Known about the structure:
- With 253 residues, the chain is mainly alpha-helical.
- It contains 14 helices and 2 strands, in the order H-H-H-H-H-H-H-H-E-E-H-H-H-H-H-H.
- It is 64% helix and 2% strand.
- A hairpin with a 4-residue loop joins strand 1 (140-141) and strand 2 (146-147).
- The longest helix has 22 residues, at 229-250.
- 38% of the residues are buried.
Amino acid sequence: xDEEGQPIWQLAPRVRNxxxxxxxxxxxxxxxxxxxxxxxxxxxxKFKDDPLALYQLALFFAREGFYDQSIACAQRILILSPEESxxxxxxxxxKLHYPVYYADLIVPQAEKRGLEPLLFSALIWQESWxxxxxxxxxxxxxxxxxxxxxxxxxxxxxxxxxxxxTDLYRPVVSVEFGGWYLEWxxxxxxxxxxxxxxxxxxxxxxxxxxxxxxxxxxIDLFVEEVDFAQTRAFIHRIYQHYWIYRTxxxxxx
Length: 253
């Protein structure tokens, strides 16, 4: 099909007429979101070296609520981009890669808990790529990736009597749990964000060990003490995401 003259954001015929797209759309229409997502993921891979198609797919996925697939498209565009750093990328592309989905939940929750909304967004980006149904191997569930024992405790603290673990897949629950827990941790760790993030990832016992009874107050020194590679990477990544969020939305880190 002729692609001349159509708006840049509309799906090009080469994408729209692809069998994987048709299959995905059909599955979506009959409510088979998981199967549709699998087809759309294949489609994304098929067009992995086509920045325009990836951009159009990123917008389509965002409209359909496949937020993690949209982020994956944006990430791939940035890899293909001649720009050396995301900080030099166009603002619209930064925001496509670092979106704030569920802002109607995240912003009020962050304000209620005394958290910076973009830092909370950075945490959700790291934990789930805004996939409400994200499930990791523990299993940790939902946008803010709670494991069952922690979720049960938070539900008790929030006086939710009819809480079930599958509720973690509901953004309204996941965001509230994440906000409450992060506020609780911040108080526990005396408002030191780097310790709070370590606590979120590895628990209070490990933080106490790394913190050495209050001796380590500098973030770089603290991170050097962290002997879990996963937790060290987690802290660095959240800060990195946070700076990019600030650049994308405020214009400066």
